[in-house]
Design goal:
The protein has 4 helices and 5 strands, in the order βαββββααα. It is of the alpha+beta class. The two termini are 22 Å apart.
């Protein structure tokens, strides 16, 4: 999977497996029971999450979410989604909401100062810094995704290995 040419921060993939959904889920249950110290799995209905554990887990370590859909009796459609650590993702969303809130407040202040014919240079400066902050958050997220690329490929190989057994 080539991540450098992707604009999206969350990478998706789709795969059709010529096995029943119950058989595929059982493969993940069997792998979970092996107690691999490097990986952990969470299984809920037709959803599977694969996480990296132990010393190899870093702040940029991704997880893989799989959604298993029954196509027909003997075929399963799998939707995969690589995502960052949920805590890190929540922190980034918190920062986005804070920046957006401050941006809206300063848009109101800018309008007020403009209407009252007051100086608006400071308002424009702060709004510009907030826009720059948004872009910085985006590029930081891309850097985190790039650092986690090797582990994404590792999770994808593990996923294919589990499916192939």
């Amino acid at each position: 999977m080539e991540v450098d040419n992707e604009v999206r921060l969350l990478l998706r993939f789709y795969k059709d497996v010529s096995q029943n959904t119950d058989v595929v889920i059982q493969k993940f249950i069997d792998f979970k029971q092996q107690k691999n110290p490097n990986y952990s799995l969470k299984i809920s209905d037709n959803h599977v999450w694969i996480f990296i554990n132990g010393e190899r887990k870093k702040y940029y370590s991704p997880h893989l979410h799989l959604e298993l859909e029954k196509s027909n009796e003997n075929e399963t459609h799998i939707r995969g989604l690589f995502g960052p650590d949920p805590t890190l993702w929540t922190f980034f969303m918190f920062l986005h909401f804070i920046i957006a809130g401050v941006f809206l407040i300063f848009c109101g202040i800018l309008y007020t100062h403009y209407t009252l014919k007051n100086a608006i240079t400071t308002d424009y400066t702060i709004l510009s810094l907030l826009v720059i902050s948004w872009f910085m958050l985006y590029f930081i997220a891309r850097k985190i995704r790039y650092k986690g690329n090797d582990q994404m490929q590792e999770l994808e190989k593990l996923f294919n290995k589990i499916i192939a057994t």
